[in-house]
């Protein structure tokens, strides 16, 4: 069990280190303001109405992530009203979640 916990912590550290440090606080503030985790989850925290963000950067290209935010499919609301720099922060953050 200790090995599994260590490996899980190491995987989380690797994920977080892939995200540029400058983008993390801005992205986390934006995610909180927009309420993203009421539907999505990350690292076991958040909602279950939409896909989990764990590993999204490995599954989707930055352009696919951007498109889903601005012109979503399914029940997700559009966030086309975001400022270009806010959109870029979100795309960078989510792309780094490998």
Please provide a written account of the structure.
The chain has about 100 residues and is mainly α. The protein has one domain (about 1-95): Cytochrome c-like domain (Cytochrome Bc1 Complex, Chain D, domain 2, Orthogonal Bundle). It has 5 helices and 2 strands; from the N terminus they run ααββααα. It has helices at about 1-20, 25-35, 55-60, 60-70, 85-95, and strands spanning about 40, 45. It has a two-stranded antiparallel sheet. A hairpin with a 2-residue loop joins β1 and β2 (about 45). It is globular. The mean pLDDT is about 85.
Identify the CATH architecture. Answer: Orthogonal Bundle
pLDDT below 50 for ≥5 consecutive residues: which ranges?
Answer: none
Report the order of strands and helices.
HHEEHHH
Tell me the strand order in the biggest sheet.
Answer: 1-2
Portion of residues within helices: 55-70%
Major sheet attributes: 2 strands, antiparallel
| Overall mean pLDDT | 85
What's the number of extended β-strand segments? Answer: 2
* Structural class by secondary-structure content: mainly alpha
Provide tags for this entry.
98 residues, mainly alpha, Cytochrome Bc1 Complex, Chain D, domain 2, two-stranded antiparallel sheet, 4% strand, globular
How would the blueprint of this fold be written?
Blueprint: H1 2-18, H2 23-34, E1 41-42, E2 45-46, H3 56-59, H4 62-70, H5 84-95
Antiparallel strand pairs: 1-2
Helix pairs in contact: 2-5, 4-5
């Amino acid at each position: 069990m200790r090995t599994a916990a260590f490996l899980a912590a190491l995987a989380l550290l690797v994920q977080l280190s892939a995200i540029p440090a400058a983008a993390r606080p801005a992205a986390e503030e934006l995610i909180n303001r927009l309420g993203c985790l009421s539907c999505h989850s990350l690292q076991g925290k958040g909602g279950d109405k939409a896909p989990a963000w764990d590993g999204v950067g490995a599954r989707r290209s930055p352009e696919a992530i951007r498109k889903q935010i601005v012109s979503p499919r399914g029940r997700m609301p559009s966030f086309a009203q975001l400022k270009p720099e806010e959109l870029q922060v979100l795309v960078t953050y989510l792309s780094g979640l490998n």
